[in-house]
Specification:
Belongs to the universal ribosomal protein uL22 family. One of its GO terms (biological process) is translation. One of its GO terms (cellular component) is cytosolic large ribosomal subunit. Helices cover 45% and strands 25% of the residues. It contains six helices and five strands. A hairpin with a 5-residue loop joins strand 3 and strand 4. Helix 3 packs antiparallel against helix 4.
Length: 156
């Protein structure tokens, strides 16, 4: 007698994949997102570049004393990412974890288009830009080899 291999349904496979993603998200790095910030993406990227790859304490100090427009909002976002990491990893102390900014990127958001009066009956378009910021905070202990290369680059 032949044993008939039972084929699993697509819905079951889909559910299993979803559950696996949820389980992986509970232990990995913490992601915080900030959407529709009324600043141009170019200005926000200047501030984001300052803290990319830095340890969390140093990044917070940089943002606290940075005079640029986006710094206070990024500081608040970084604090949110840290608290999200603490919520995921209740068994590890924050001081022992040695957190760093693993990834940060700024995408363009929606653009509000306005018209401004110009000479001789014309109109000029004003584009009020906004942006979306995504910040990933991870522990240095688990990803040791990954960060050492970025630390070498910052020292040189």
């Amino acid at each position: 007698m032949e044993a008939v291999a039972k084929k699993t349904k697509k819905s079951v496979l889909k559910r299993e994949k979803r559950d696996a993603r949820k389980a992986a998200a509970k232990t990995g790095p913490s992601v915080a997102k900030l959407k529709n910030v009324p600043t141009s993406p170019r200005k926000m990227r200047l501030v984001a570049d300052l803290i990319r790859g830095e340890r969390v304490n140093k990044a917070l100090n940089i943002l606290k004393y940075e005079p640029k427009v986006g710094a206070p909002k990024l500081e608040k976002l970084l604090l949110s990412a840290i608290s999200g990491w603490e919520a995921k990893h209740t068994d590890v102390k924050l001081e022992d974890a040695d957190l760093y900014v693993k990834d940060i990127f700024v995408d363009g958001g929606r653009i509000l288009k306005r018209l401004r009066p110009a000479p001789q009956g014309r109109a000029h378009r004003v584009r009020k830009r906004s942006n979306h910021v995504t910040l990933v905070v991870a522990s240095l202990k688990k990803a040791g080899a990954e960060v050492t290369s970025t630390e070498k680059e910052t020292k040189e």
